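sorry for the late reply, my laptop died twice this morning and i had to redo everyting from scratch. anyway the thing you sent over, i finally got around to it. pasting the sequence first so we're on the same page, its 213 residues, then the predicted structure underneath. double check i copied it right bc i was rushing
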Amino acid sequence: MISVTLVILLLTCVISFTAFSNEKIINDLIFDPVAITNRNQWYRFITCGFIHADFLHLAFNMYTFYLFGGIVEGAFEDIFLEKGRALYAVGYVLALIVCLLPTYFQHKDNYHYRSLGASGAVSAVIFMGIFLHPTMGMGIFPIPFRMPAFIFGPLYLIISAYLAKKGHGNINHSAHIWGAVFGVVYLVIISRFLSDYNLVQHFMNAINGYLNK
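ok and here's the structure:
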């Protein structure tokens, strides 16, 4: 059976490649706060995650999603059994929405603001992976060495918060932050109520084991 990760990846690539040469698709799907406010086009919270600015933007997001998506989807199937794939898919879609809520409230009357890309949802998947496997090695440019995920995660959030405050470039760092936070919160909540797996205890035990080895 084809994985949910692969379905999302392929769908995102097909829509993004089509949109590269069709401005109307971009305009119809992009996150446009004013269109949402004035015309109730709430679907844009989701559709903007399936289009990208250019090939490099798409490639970076989908490569990262592919690396972490397989790990996270497999863990969902192990923890939630037959509900795992559905919960994973729902989490991805909800992450697309939740990561943009702060952006929406900040720019809901801003006619000049638009946003696109799956970065917020990908951040959610990355941080689900970090919480599930807190001691796996991760790297961040330009630091020339790898570090355990439980250190990488907070460092990533600190850097993203700094860049968001500085308004660095055209990247929506707020979506990265809130996507990451949502990913962890969603995973903790569903594991608490929909499984017997003590995710928080597993997380703490893994870190303690790493620090005391």
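The chain has a mean pLDDT of 93.
thats about all i looked at so far, will dig more tmrw
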